[in-house]
Design a protein that fits this description.
344 residues, alpha/beta, Rossmann fold, Dihydrodipicolinate Reductase, domain 2, 7-stranded mixed sheet, binds NADPH dihydro-nicotinamide-adenine-dinucleotide phosphate, binds N-acetyl-L-glutamyl 5-phosphate
Amino acid sequence: MKVSVIGTTGYGGVELLRILHRHPVFNIHSIHSTKEEVPIWNEYPHLYNILENQIEKINFDRISTDSDVVFLATPSGVSSKLVDEFSNKDIKVIDLSGDLRLKKPGEYERWYKKESANSQLIEEAVYGLSEWNREQIKRSKLIANPGCYATSALMGLAPVTKARLIDTESIIIDGKSGTSGAGKALSKGSLFAEVNENFKIYKVNEHQHTPEIEQQLLTWHEGIRPITFSTHLLPMTRGIMTTIYVKLRGQYSTEQILYLYNESYQNASFVRVRPEGNYPSVKEVAGSNYCDIGLHVDERTGRLTIVSVIDNLMKGAAGQAVQNANIMFGFEETLGLEMMPLYP
Ligand SMILES: NC(=O)C1=CN([C@@H]2O[C@H](COP(=O)(O)OP(=O)(O)OC[C@H]3O[C@@H](n4cnc5c(N)ncnc54)[C@H](OP(=O)(O)O)[C@@H]3O)[C@@H](O)[C@H]2O)C=CC1
Ligand SMILES: CC(=O)N[C@@H](CCC(=O)OP(=O)(O)O)C(=O)O
């Protein structure tokens, strides 16, 4: 089965190549960027003697005639234009950007401060939170792959939200990310001297994943009220840790909530719910598609603390995108994604 990747010179794109190179069914047919047509190892020397592919200019007709699926690892505002070009063609599209995620008119403009994609495409796009949307993903031709922070937060919140065990006004989400989450494009905030031995909060109360998280929570529980969501930049390359605080409606023990999480994720190969007293760290999922969750009920305050960790480039981007492609084509969801975390 043939695959094309647009945005190959970026971090999400090159992570797709790392996965697809070892995928048993998908073959990297063509890779694209707006840059010059050179072998991929010119851009990424670590691929020397591994991948022979040449970076090509984007040719929509050729990609859709030759390939079965195209991944768009392109910035928001760019993806929507590319999706438009593929919209009447016979090819499945998985977009890693935020362009097709927000359904409510006006939300994208408000949070991304850019012109929104065509409303018909937004309507058609299925939100690719793999574990919670498998049936819709299976029937879809167009996937809006979730944001990295949103994935981590939603995986952590889903079971207690769906079971309606939480006070709907009490959700606080505290996200921390490595710098690869910001992509490869040069920016002052990602410079070594800015990030090293530092820890910063950013986009306070205006992070673009806020409406994405709320939108999905509302599909699980219509009473959910606006969330508080903070994002921080950590001096590391990969990984997201999201710590979530919610007030419980009623008295539950850690053991009872863990039982609910284990039941909810019993068919989810990539979710590892940790036993009582054990909490995941970002390194324990690095380079893998796992989302690891630990939790504890504070019986003194009635609050539940949930810790959810992912690799932002894997479960937060390229890994989940390939998981969705597997689901769309009816393959085992884990195909090509069974790599162990890289440790230490
Ligand atoms: N990094 C992460 O952890 C995550 C990223 N995402 C999303 O995935 C997408 C890719 O992110 P990331 O890889 O980090 O970003 P990068 O900045 O690292 O890469 C972006 C890529 O897009 C390409 N590109 C830029 N402009 C255009 C254009 N006009 N036409 C075609 N291609 C273009 C660039 O290629 P070139 O300049 O060579 O043309 C580059 O390869 C973004 O939408 C991001 O928000 C989602 C979840 C997590
Ligand atoms: C560390 C860092 O800067 N992370 C990015 C992650 C968001 C992203 O990847 O963009 P989408 O909206 O397309 O999902 C950020 O906080 O904006």
